[in-house]
Amino acid sequence: MKAIRVTELGAPEVMKMANIPDPVIMGPDQLIIEVQAAGVNPVDAYIRSGRYPMRMPLPYTPGWDGAGTVLSTGPGVKKFKPGDRVYFSGSLTGAYAEKTLCEENQAHLLPSNLSFPQGAAVGVPYGTAWRALFIRAKARPAETVLIHGASGGVGTAAVQIARTAGIRVIGTAGTEQGRRLVSALGANFVLDHTDPGHMRKVLELTEGRGADVILEFLANINLSGDIETMAAGGRVVVVGSRGKIEIDPGLMMGNDGSVLGMSLRNAPPQENAEIYAAIGAGLANGLLSPVIDKELPLSAAPLAHEAVMKAGAHGKTVLMPYVPALPERELEAAGAGRR
Length: 339
Description:
Layout: E1 2-6, E2 15-19, E3 30-40, H1 42-49, E4 65-73, E5 85-89, E6 99-103, E7 107-109, H2 116-120, H3 123-136, E8 144-147, H4 153-164, E9 168-173, H5 176-184, E10 189-192, H6 198-205, E11 211-216, H7 219-229, E12 230-238, H8 249-255, E13 258-261, H9 269-284, E14 292-297, H10 301-308, E15 316-320, H11 328-337
Helix pairs in contact: 3-4, 3-9
């Protein structure tokens, strides 16, 4: 089968298309999925570059989430059968490939109202948003959440999830298109985070109280301002960071505030089951609807990694293993904003 392989850590170009053996079921509770769409997440880029605490043994196939059709199952698999449409959050052999091997508890039925690209946008973004909001921050109805970078994959998921729970949402985005998207998803207020005064506006919108919960995707830039803007007893959940930052801990002491780290990979099995049971219900009844920014062929994995690390995302970038590689001119156009 065709797959993207990383043989050395480094820039996006270290990812190369290769022909490798198909995955083989090794345990009773495993299944093989024909991947129709693979999700691209910032964590994939961090791991590939070597800037992530977890190191993958080389060579490896990147990718944590995706969607496709079940091809075969081990004798212990009870929830799925060949032909089922599924999405997965976690893979034993990597998602950037025509086929992947998963444990049964990593896969979930994909509702018929969602496409495969939308299914590939569920696993990491929605799981991360849910865990950040309700397990780490313990957000409650009627509270206010500030979502920095609300137009990206996790951000769009967080806006939808928070609004369905009765949480007041202030979302930020750096482009007019992004702000329109965040508004359309149901955010109560939308701010331009390129405006130097946007954090002051958060205080104005909350009558000086500040945000109860802040989801932060670029903590090395924004964390100090977050701490200054959170309400008494507020919680900042660090979902992403690309470096170090100096903060004043005294500000947290004065208002009983908390800064919480978070990684979806730390969720234990029972917690994962709870997360995706709740997400599955929201997907099935239409309250949650993943937003796709770019659909690119598998061969464009380097371009996808560049795109996912840039500002101005409008949903999730996905790779399509069975879409033919595009000519260079079309590939550049796709990277600029194919929807």
